[in-house]
C-alpha cells in the first residue's frame, strides 16, 4: 500500500485550531457589517424597526450636515495624511542616519501612540486655549497676536488638522524606521564608494526601497483619517467644534445613533462612508501600482 503524501494545506485539524478565531471574527466583524447594512433599510427605534427601503439613504444624502461632515472628513484626510507622512519620513531619516542612540528616540516617539488619545486631547486643549494656552504664549512672545484655536468656527478644522498630524507621527515613524533597517547596508557602501552624496543616496536607494512601506502607511492612514472621531471628541470636549464646525462623518454617525436615537439614519451614513473609503482606497492602490511600474 502507498502511504498518502502529507499535504500541509487544508488539513482538518487546522480548521479546528482556527475555529475560535473564526467565531470571534464572524461574531464581532462580519455579523455587525451585515447587521448594519440591514438596519440601514429600516426606520424606528432599535426595539421597533420597520422596513423603510432607501428612505434613510435619501435623507442622509440630502442632509447638509452630512455633506459638511464628509467635506470636513475629506479635508482632514487629504491634509493630515500627506503632511504627517512627509514629516515622519524626514524625522525617521534623520534618526536613522544622524542619531546615535536610536532606541531612546524610538521610545520617545512611540510613547504618544500607546497613550490614550483622550489624555493627549486634554493636554492639547490646554496648549490651544485662547486665554492661557502655551501656543498663544509662544506667539505673543514672538510678537504675534493670540489666536482663538478652539472657539472660532474658521479655526476648528485647522486645529483638528494640527492635532491629527501630531497624533499620526508616532506610528509612521516607527514603521518607517523598521523599513529603513530592512535596506541592505551594502547598497549604501557601494553608493558612497562611487561618490554619491546624501540626496542621491536617499532619492535613488532609500526612497525606492521604502515604496512598499509608504504604500502600506498611505492605505492605513487614509482609512484611519476617514474614520476620525476620537481626536474630535478629545480636542473639543465631546463636541464637534463650536457650532459643529468640525463635524466629521463618524461623529455624524455617533450623533444620529446615540444622541438623536435614529439608528437607521446612522447605519445608512455608515454604509455610505464605507463605500467612500472603499472607493478611495481602490483608486489609491491603482495609482500606486502605476507609479510602482513606472519606477
From TrEMBL:
- Subcellular location(s) per record: Cell membrane
Record's keyword terms, sorted: Cell membrane, Membrane, Transmembrane, Transmembrane helix, Transport
Tell me where in this chain the ABC transmembrane type-1 domain is found.
70-284
Which processes are annotated in GO (biological process)?
A: transmembrane transport
Sequence similarity: Belongs to the binding-protein-dependent transport system permease family.
Organism annotation: Enterococcus hirae
- Can you name this protein? ABC transporter permease
Lineage in the entry? Bacteria, Bacillati, Bacillota, Bacilli, Lactobacillales
Query: Could you give one GO CC term from the UniProt record?
Result: plasma membrane
> Which InterPro entries does the protein's record reference?
ABC_transporter_permease, MetI-like, MetI-like_sf
What highest taxon heads this organism's lineage? Bacteria
Entry's Gene3D superfamilies?
Answer: MetI-like (1.10.3720.10)
Coarsely, its chief localization is membrane
Amino acid at each position: 500500500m502507498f502511504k498518502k503524501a502529507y499535504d500541509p494545506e487544508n488539513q482538518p485539524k487546522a480548521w479546528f485550531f482556527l475555529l475560535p478565531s473564526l467565531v470571534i471574527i464572524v461574531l464581532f466583524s462580519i455579523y455587525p457589517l451585515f447587521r448594519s447594512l440591514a438596519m440601514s433599510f429600516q426606520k424606528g427605534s432599535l426595539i421597533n424597526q420597520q422596513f423603510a427601503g432607501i428612505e434613510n439613504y435619501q435623507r442622509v444624502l440630502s442632509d447638509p450636515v452630512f455633506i459638511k461632515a464628509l467635506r470636513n472628513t475629506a479635508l482632514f484626510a487629504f491634509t493630515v495624511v500627506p503632511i504627517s507622512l512627509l514629516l515622519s519620513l524626514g524625522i525617521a531619516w534623520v534618526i536613522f542616519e544622524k542619531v546615535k542612540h536610536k532606541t531612546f528616540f524610538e521610545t520617545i516617539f512611540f510613547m504618544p501612540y500607546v497613550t490614550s488619545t483622550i489624555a493627549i486631547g486634554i493636554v492639547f486643549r490646554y496648549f490651544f486655549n485662547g486665554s492661557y494656552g502655551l501656543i498663544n504664549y509662544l506667539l505673543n512672545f514672538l510678537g504675534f497676536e493670540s489666536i482663538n484655536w478652539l472657539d472660532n468656527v474658521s479655526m476648528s478644522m485647522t486645529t483638528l488638522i494640527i492635532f491629527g498630524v501630531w497624533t499620526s507621527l508616532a506610528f509612521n515613524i516607527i514603521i518607517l524606521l523598521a523599513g529603513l533597517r530592512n535596506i541592505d547596508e551594502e547598497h549604501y557602501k557601494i553608493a558612497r564608494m562611487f561618490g554619491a552624496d546624501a540626496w542621491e543616496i536617499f532619492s535613488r536607494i532609500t526612497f525606492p526601497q521604502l515604496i512598499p512601506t509608504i504604500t502600506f502607511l498611505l492605505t492605513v492612514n487614509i482609512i484611519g483619517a476617514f474614520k476620525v472621531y476620537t481626536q474630535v471628541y478629545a480636542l473639543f470636549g465631546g463636541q464637534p467644534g463650536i457650532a459643529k464646525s468640525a463635524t466629521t462623518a463618524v461623529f455624524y454617525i455617533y450623533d444620529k445613533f446615540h444622541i438623536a436615537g435614529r439608528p437607521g439614519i446612522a447605519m445608512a451614513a455608515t454604509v455610505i462612508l464605507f463605500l467612500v473609503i472603499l472607493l478611495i482606497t481602490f483608486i489609491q492602490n491603482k495609482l500606486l501600482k502605476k507609479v510602482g511600474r513606472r519606477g
